[in-house]
Amino acid sequence: MNLQRTRLRSGPPNRRGQASVAKSTGRDKNFIALTEKVFGILAAFSQNPQHPISLEEITQSVNLAKTTVHRLLYSMKKLGYVEQSLDTGLYMLSQKFFELGRAGLPYQRVVTVARPLLENLRLRCGESVHIAVLEKGLITFIAVVESPNPYRCAAIPGEVSYAHSTAVGKCLLASLSEEEVENVIREHGLPKLARNTITSGTQLLDELRRVRDEGVSTNIEENIDGVICVAAPIRDNTGVPIAALSVSGPAIRMEVILAGVKEEVKRVAARISSMLGCGPIHLEPKAALPMTGHPPMLH
After folding, report:
1. In contact, 62 and 47? CB cutoff 8 Å
2. What structural domains does the chain harbor?
3. Which among 163, 193, 214, 288 is most buried, taking Cβ atoms within 10 Å?
4. What is the pLDDT of residue 25?
């Protein structure tokens, strides 16, 4: 175990999408000039957002040869990201293009809205804070605020993990129907990853019922030995869980603050949900519990 940092993921191969656009700076050998041309065409569409545009208009906008622009538009059209009117020959961005961003927008909004609360929650608990979503039966971490402790447990944004062994995963599985949970089990199985991993479908369904009743889930050394996590759902404006908020840390520290962390995670998740338009979430009023061995809770 790395004393500087324990990674939360244990299981399926990592899949991180870390695309970035390079800037054209002279003879940068890593820069692909074609990229600049493609994004130049996309920028031309953004300058005329309400109407289809002609090949001539795009050519003038990007200052490229008409044959080059035509070939790029043809390629984009063949991939389904650009449409061309059969009557006028004008071009427009397709529905497929806009779906690229639409799928990620809700998650981006969650992270943007939640960021200050994540920082505050880390201060209150002294441990790493995460937001994760459920995608195709697996958990993907989309936001991480690491604990300042030299011995800490944190994922990396974009990391993927099993749902059955993580607090965030169980939190989101609890919002699915029994049939949907069984489909996840059939696709990904219930591999044993740590000493307390749930490996029985019946046991998992029982655990998910408990999570629904309590509004919070725990991972007591189920994903990685020596690590404890607590999670609560983040809901959208319809009340449906779209993500989960968690606090994770070494078991030796988390054991003594577990009750307090549960209440804090539920409270902050409810606050984020409210900021996303979810109606009031009833939480039993409780006094703030001391975080033994951590910085004093802030008010």
Report:
1. no
2. 33-102 (1.10.10.10), 105-275 (3.30.450.40)
3. 163
4. 45
